[in-house]
Amino acid sequence: MEKHQFTARDLRALIIPLIADSFLSILIGMADTIMVSGCGEAAVSGVSLVDSVSNLLITVFSAFATGGAVVVSQYLGHGENDKARDSAKNLIYISIAISVLMTAIILPMRSHIIDILFGSIDSDVKGYTDDYFVPILFSYPFLAVYSGLTAISRSERKSFRTMTVSAMMNVINIGGNAILIYIVGMGPRGAGIASLLSRIAGCTVMAIMMMNKNEELNIRGLHKGPISPYLIMRILRIGIPSGLEGAAFHVGKIMVQSLVASLGTSAIAINAVAANYNSYANIPGNGINLAMITIVGQCRGQDNIKDVKYYTKLLTGLVLLATVILCIPFYIITPQVVSFYGLEASSISTAIPICRLCLVMCFTIWPFSFSLPNMLKAVGDVKFILLASFSSMWLCRVGGAYFMVRVLGMGVEAIWYAMYLDWLLRGTLYTWRVLSGKWISKKVI
User: Fold this and answer.
1) Which of 84, 144, 233, 324 could serve as 61's disulfide partner, Cβ 3.0–4.6 Å?
2) How far apart are CA 73 and CA 71, in angstroms?
3) How crowded is residue 125: how many other Cβ atoms within 10 Å of its Cβ?
4) Tens digits of per-residue pLDDT, 49-90?
5) What's the pTM value of the predicted model, to 2 decimals?
6) DSSP 6
């Protein structure tokens, strides 16, 4: 039997905890939406609008964490552990600087940002957005550092650790929601505070673990440096294009969310439920996609092109299989799941077919749109991803949504049809790029 760089046991040890971690990470946001649903559709809508802005910033943090993970993984694959360790420290410096700057800029402007992005929304929805937004803003530095530390741990193949910490964060978040929303009666503000506390705890625990002197990529002496412009630039070579790609993606989503807001509070709530449903369906895929950064990155660090191709096929196939297995039962119980969100009866009847079609799209075209770009990131082919994603997003998701709603007069379902066109186009472009082999000439280290 042909030998490969990772054994089946290595893959299981890395991927299974990452799938669980993906579920737990998504659960934090879902818990806020579900647990405030008892406060009415306006509360669900307020949390949803803030999350659409917040996801843009989280994507930026994740992009820099991905850049760090690619550099660290390739150095580890190349046997340069000292440079991998120094790269890990410089990733944390970048994470702190970017997140603190963003919080300082956005905090005093938050109400104006909501007004600019979403225009005229109901006063009660606007009040809920501010209640939720303030604690979420204060959580960004902790979340950014946590994202960097978990990316470093994944590069070490220590995904069980990140899963455990994520589980702890969910206990804190859900417990905090139960107390602050249902007992204290704070509504969305309570959900935001619970998220803040969970992110502080996660960041603190991860930092303590990564300070251990026996840790392969320990960050002891973080306050002493070295701050390396050379390593920072290597991280930014991946992080900036990934960040721009993610930012363009979420700016487009925010524009679409603004379009949804113009359709009324019920449409906002339906879209929020469908977005959560989309997140459910992609839990296993997101976990396997995270593993692809580590696996392909380390293979590329050893110039092992044969295994890069092998694991790209294997992991994309696993995403397809896992998504099918998850989506089929969810398709059957969709009415029961949607009913948990506290929507009006008419909203529930609209949301059910939207959610079911989403499941079908997730196990047919989503893997090609979101698994293959992780392979391209891991080998350093980030400029192509930026171009493909930017073009597809604005042509299909934004342009298509506005055309279907403004010109054809369609409702909230048009938002999702446009998104599927976006997935189809970008999946086609990424598949062509992978098969073309043009990524082989790209270098990170």
Assistant:
1) 144
2) 6
3) 24
4) 888 778 778 878 888 888 888 888 888 888 888 888 888 888
5) 0.78
6) S
Euclidean distance between the first and final Cα of the chain, in Å? 31
Six-digit token pair at 405?
Answer: 């709603």
DSSP code string of 226-283: ---HHHHHHHHHHHHHHHHHHHHHHHHHHHHHHHHHTT-HHHHHHHHHHHHHHHHHTH
Confidence of residue 29 (pLDDT cuts 50, 70, 90): low
The Cα–Cα gap between 47 and 29 comes to 9
Tokens in use for 119? 């225009």
Give the mean pLDDT of 228-238.
83
**Using an 8 Å Cβ cutoff, are 254 and 52 in contact?**
yes
Cβ atoms of residues 431 and 368 within 8 Å: yes
Query: Token match 């449903």: residue?
Result: 277
For residue 108, the 8-state DSSP code is G
Residues, the chain: 445
Q: Could you give the C-alpha distances from 434 to 208, 273, 375, 425, in angstroms and in order? A: 39, 34, 9, 15
Q: Which two tokens stand for residue 72?
A: 């660290």
pLDDT category at 30 given cuts 50, 70, 90 is low
Token readout for 390 is 């930017």
